[in-house]
Design brief:
Number of strands: 7
Shape: globular
Radius of gyration: 19 Å
Helix content: 40-55%
Length: 318
């Protein structure tokens, strides 16, 4: 974000902000590329949920199986034109640490949560008509049959996506409440600092609907008792509100599964994941579980409720 020059920033703003341009390029894509093989009946995997739960780690792990197509940084900023983007988007990103400073590196070919631009551009009725086309275009651009998406906001539209792809699989990671809440708080402060230094970073994150933290943060649920975003209890309350709702809404959905971040390195968990998505996992990537020693004065009753729910989610996870 911060290393884009003026011309690149202008190109991003023109391409991402103008719905007419995005839709026009999407229609051109369909005319020229949808004549090729379609893969609408292959596997569709959606990773979604509360940030800082391991969604990106899980995305990279599955993407490294080489079984999936996904939007990558090379598709920026022509995100609704995954085939044309290979012609017009020439910026190459060498391996670098992402702005989160969390040990995750990326380059031009790294997958990322970019499909939210599609969902923002079209109405619900248009999504029902065009989602298959869009995913097929991504599959064609990567010459793959299976689709993988990580979008933390897709939890809001699981039912909508299932109308288009009834057999799509949804994976919702869950992390230790205090660890995840601290990570959310830490990133909130990190991105406030970045966005104050560079207004383009704020614009970029707003445009991609990355409102998880920073100056443009939007809560997942209306706070009940905690409104101070600099207080870990705010994030802890958001944690329990989010997962209470998710547990209620998706526990009985056979195509939705919770997965525990702390169990990512567990062979049984990965075996269950492999069976759930019906993809043999052979990649050699290993999970590094990040756990910090934390000492916060959290609301004792809230903390107790969070860990009770965490235990229940663990019992009903992969």
């Amino acid at each position: 974000m911060s290393n884009y020059n003026l011309a690149e920033r202008t190109f991003h703003k023109l391409s991402l902000k103008n719905n007419f341009i995005k839709k026009a390029l999407f229609e051109i894509e369909k005319i020229f590329f949808l004549k090729k093989t379609k893969f609408i009946d292959e596997k569709k995997i959606f990773i979604t949920g509360l940030p800082r739960s391991g969604t990106t780690i899980l995305l990279n792990f599955l993407y490294n199986t080489n079984e999936f197509a996904s939007l990558t940084y090379s598709n920026m900023p022509l995100l609704l034109s995954p085939n044309l983007s290979k012609i017009f988007s020439k910026k190459k990103i060498t391996k670098k640490l992402r702005a989160h400073k969390d040990g995750i590196f990326y380059n031009s070919e790294s997958p990322e949560a970019f499909d939210e631009v599609f969902f923002k551009t079209f109405s619900e009725s248009e999504i029902l008509m065009e989602l298959k086309n869009y995913i097929n275009l991504i599959l064609i651009s990567k010459n793959k049959k299976n689709y993988l998406s990580k979008n933390n906001l897709n939890y809001k539209r699981i039912t909508l996506i299932q109308k288009v792809f009834p057999e799509a699989k949804f994976i919702i990671p869950v992390r230790d409440p205090i660890q995840q809440s601290y990570s959310l708080l830490n990133q909130h402060l990190n991105f406030i600092n970045l966005q104050k230094k560079d207004n383009f970073t704020l614009w970029y994150m707003n445009t991609l609907s990355h409102n998880e933290f920073g100056l443009n943060h939007k809560p997942w649920h209306i706070p009940k008792f905690y409104n101070d975003k600099n207080d870990i209890n705010y994030w802890l309350e958001q944690w329990i509100l989010f997962y209470q709702t998710s547990f209620k809404n998706f526990l009985t959905n056979k195509n939705c599964k919770f997965i525990i971040y702390e169990n990512f390195s567990n062979k049984e968990t990965i075996s269950n994941l492999s069976k759930f998505i019906n993809i043999e996992i052979k990649c050699s990537s290993k999970f590094t579980i990040n756990k910090k020693i934390l000492d916060f004065n959290t609301d004792k009753l809230l903390t107790k409720k969070c860990y009770s729910l965490y235990s229940e989610l663990s019992e009903n996870s992969l």
